[in-house]
Specification:
With 304 residues, the chain is an alpha/beta fold. The protein has one domain: Ribokinase (UDP-N-acetylmuramoyl-L-alanine:D-glutamate ligase, 3-Layer(aba) Sandwich). Helices cover 34% and strands 26% of the residues. The strands form 2 sheets. A 9-stranded mixed β-sheet has the order 5-4-1-8-9-10-11-12-13, with helices on both faces. A 4-stranded mixed β-sheet has the order 3-2-6-7. A hairpin with a 6-residue loop joins strand 6 and strand 7. Helix 8 packs across helix 10. The relative contact order is 0.16. It binds adenosine monophosphate (AMP).
Amino acid sequence: MAEKRPEPIVAVGTIALDTVITPWGKAENVLGGSGMYFAVAASILAPVNLVGVVGGDFDHWEELNRPNLDLEGVATLPGKTFRWGGKYRENVNLRETLYTELGVTENYDLQVPESYRGCGMVCLANIDPPTQLKLLDSMRNPKFVVADTMNLWIKSDRENLLEVAGRCDVLILNDEEARQLTGKLNLVEALEEIQGLGSRTVVVKKGDHGAIAALGSELFAIPAYPLKKVVDPTGAGDSFVGGFAGYIQRAGSRSHAAMRTAVVYGSAMASFCCEDFSIRRIKDLSLAELEARVEFFRKLVHFD
Ligand code: AMP
């Protein structure tokens, strides 16, 4: 990996106060949001300039005071922070959304600080596609764009989502979303069809079944890290994107080989995220711990 400090990644996504119930317990009004999980995860590998919005009730600034995370792009508006509640049962792949309160995100008119506009690496964590497009339009010369999405936008704003897909280099989504977007049950067919939308690289996250990526005409797949106990899977997808993009930026390469390794970093990061509620496990995660888990993956899938 390159030794010099990587260039910052500019990212947008939600910054939320989550209440999560799992078979292992409950966490109330804890830090969450796609942008937040992304930023904390990616900042272990590369500097992150985060764009987003919180309400006057947001009181987690202390937790966010960390190296590699710039919050100049986070606006504070009068009103309530985005809030989301979710509940998991024994099968943590099945999630029930208890509520989504848009709060200040409803009328958020995204503003990108001038100092961010020249960055080449842009990550669109899961947020409404018009906001993702607005970030892209605000950048002077985006050279590499990674985007994530969710089922809600596939259903409610397909048109803008397709524009995002057409303008990004890497689209990351989960298996259900890939099927929903394409109408194809077979994931290999779905991957091919999504590549046809514009992004040359498509990564499909499959929860505890791992991940599969289409890189040009190549396929790459790995299992999930064999975790004994999933305490809270919230944010695993966003942390995956953070690990993926953070690695790409740190490695300074967009080759297929780098992208394969990035999928492993994403998977390793997601597995750490599941070990505790909110960002608790990833916020103090060291690069050495992350790299050790990547090495575990190397041994896990090695054969002669
Ligand atoms: P994940 O588990 O990776 O799907 O991400 C869960 C996170 O996404 C939670 O922290 C939520 O606050 C956030 N979230 C939930 N619904 C939305 C939404 N409609 N748009 C953006 N972020 C959301």
